[in-house]
């Protein structure tokens, strides 16, 4: 059996967790400006029809009391790493698919699926105070659809014998790969539910939506999905980038703050995955959209924000003329290795101090959230600087 674990309204839930005054209120994380977009909406906001990907202007019209919160990707990366660490503690084969979602393979886990799902949910609730919805099924497809059915804050277990009964009533466009165009074609032939697809001869499906999509739908409609859970402890790199809505001068303090924030979230993700990395890469996009990158491979693998930041600053300085206007900065750590633990001895006494400090911060953040502890230069970022930050990608 395969488990699909998915945090409910992840970004919004993290904001409600660290700001108790937002609990029970309609909250959306995203851009507040005239061209802003909702990235994540609390269930209170969803009750008004607000959803991810919706222009903020429209969301406010649907829900005038909506509280807009600027995204804090550093915080979400840290919380995500903490949740993934919980999942890794429960199963050997864990495949994260995004910050708030992962598949787990139950083969060899030796615990009944329902009890496993309950344990997973209660552990994430206890340790992270977040709602995790869990779906269990014989394939990735069924597990994913089960977790959707489980939301909010629930679990749905679909044993092989129940797959057909579970899938048949679902709308056909709930299957992966059924976009608006395919859905329209299916509707024209009166195929509205997954059951309708299952009852349609394979050749007919191929004629309606094309050979490849037809084959896929014929399998999916029966819950068949050969994709295995691919454990991804061995991530190849961790990284992130920030786009500034207005170009920023290369000398502006915001650049340093942004690089430090990226170093911090990269380091937290490395440590949560028990990895360290050797190569630090800085990416810069100028106001004219020209994009450049520069890397440095360090003598020792690192997993501390202090070390990543220290490597990133000279790379940035080497890439960028002082007067340049910057649109985006990115920071990535590559050459990841689970075996090569950073050898603090080689780095001297001061770095041992940093290591102790950052590992202590990890433990505090695991209990109290990322806002509890952060470097001095990130404190107060919630003012002007944060308004300029717009996250992109992971
Ligand atoms: Mg989610």
Automatic annotation (TrEMBL):
Its main location: cytoplasm. InterPro entries: DNA/RNA_pol_sf, DNA_pol_Y-fam_lit_finger_sf, DNA_pol_Y-fam_little_finger, DNA_polymerase-Y, DNApol_IV, IMS_HHH_1, Rev_trsase/Diguanyl_cyclase, UmuC. The keyword Ribosomal protein does not apply. One of its GO terms (molecular function) is damaged DNA binding. Mg(2+) binds at residues 6, 100. Its cofactor is Mg(2+). The record marks 11 as: Substrate discrimination. Binds 2 magnesium ions per subunit. It catalyses: DNA(n) + a 2'-deoxyribonucleoside 5'-triphosphate = DNA(n+1) + diphosphate. PANTHER family: DNA POLYMERASE KAPPA, DNA REPAIR POLYMERASE UMUC / TRANSFERASE FAMILY MEMBER. Belongs to the DNA polymerase type-Y family. This is DNA polymerase IV. It comes from Streptacidiphilus pinicola.
